[in-house]
Amino acid sequence: MKEVGIGILGAGNVGRGLIEILKRDGESIAERTGLRLRVAAVFDRSYKKKEVALRGIPSGDHAEVVLDHPDVSIVVELLGGLMPSEQFIRSALSKGRSVVTANKALLASPVGPELCKLAFENNVNLGFEAAVAGAIPIIRSLRLHHLAGQVRSIHGILNGTCNFIITRMEDDGLDYAEALKLAQDKGFAEADPAFDVGGQDAAQKLRILAGLAFDAYFPESSIRVEGIESIRPVDLKIARRMGWVIRLLGVARRTTDSFLLRVHPAMIHANHILASVKEERNAIFLDSSSTGPALLVGQGAGSHPTATAVLSDIIELAGAEQVGPGLFQKNVTKISPEFEYRYYVRIQTQDQPGVLAEIARVFASHKISIASFHQEEGPEPVQLVIVTHAAPELAMADAVAQINRLPVVMLPSVMIRIENL
Ligand SMILES: NC(=O)c1ccc[n+]([C@@H]2O[C@H](COP(=O)([O-])OP(=O)(O)OC[C@H]3O[C@@H](n4cnc5c(N)ncnc54)[C@H](OP(=O)(O)O)[C@@H]3O)[C@@H](O)[C@H]2O)c1
What we know:
Rossmann fold; Dihydrodipicolinate Reductase, domain 2; Alpha-Beta Plaits; 6-stranded parallel β-sheet; 15 helices; binds NADP nicotinamide-adenine-dinucleotide phosphate
């Protein structure tokens, strides 16, 4: 088993999330990857306040505790901000250590390309899967898409705060200030939300994605940015009437002889797959010459989703091996026989009194409770639609089979599970 020493700079939300996941899943990661990942040292200016999370891990408020630790082979930068993060990353890469960072501000700055070059020159790696769209593996996907073909365009919902605010105005009719306050109360928005609602956060992320997709560095001046501050519920209401929804989109497009980068609120057709992306979720709609359009959706932030992206880089950089005989080898010991669903049932009956009572009796005898009932007007067979509360699969199948045997039932019933996604 290969031992890998990890040094963490910054034990904040993401840093502590990473430590928690390694404690919880370290054994199974070792089993699956052949890597024993150990947090060898942590640097944080207020490490003493975080002693519960850091218990048993050598910690200190001098970066040397990580940067000079002999067992650290991968340095994970989770401080945020430009300085001193840049200085620490440069130091680690120059000493021949790979670095993983979630720092989008640093990567989008002119320092980003310099750090990539420094890693290359020192024959080490710089991983930044967590810098854009948290749990969504977009950096890895883009790298592969880019290697395998040509990325034509990226359309992204890249800021969870904005998407949450828009959804609350759209679905609940909250005004802008109420929706923003709710986002802050739920921890989706900073006390000073200007960077998010003004579109600058999405713009930083888009510049990183476009940089990967198009092999170029896009400076801040290369992108036009508009935020959501002036959007009001009335805009969303009118948009809906016209068959559209509004989303804050980051758009990067390859044109015949140049590139176009934008972040702005955009009307998109209500049937478009991006229109279904709601709440604080992020999504990236990628169009490439080899794959055609593809959509990735997920949590764009949060301690564990982001730490998981950090961890995926660590595992890749540490050189995970295939362990044991590979996939599909475990014997399954238990398969769950039953699952409870709500059901839609359409029963096709003769048009005569007492039919509904007979059907209700069958459901009751199987302890299945009816949530709603509806009868479609029309000629025989009459279409009775029943929606149930959650019921076990076997009981439901039995009840519908029994209903189908009733003399009043003219054709087999249609039963559809209701998935609570
Ligand atoms: N949180 C997310 O969901 C998320 C998602 C995607 C990417 N990211 C990125 O991940 C990085 C970390 O984010 P986070 O949410 O974990 O931030 P955070 O909670 O503020 O954590 C940063 C930690 O580093 C410490 N720190 C900051 N500057 C320092 C310095 N100069 N010297 C020593 N210690 C310092 C902080 O100490 P104090 O406690 O004393 O401030 C804190 O413990 C950022 O680059 C962020 O953009 C975060």
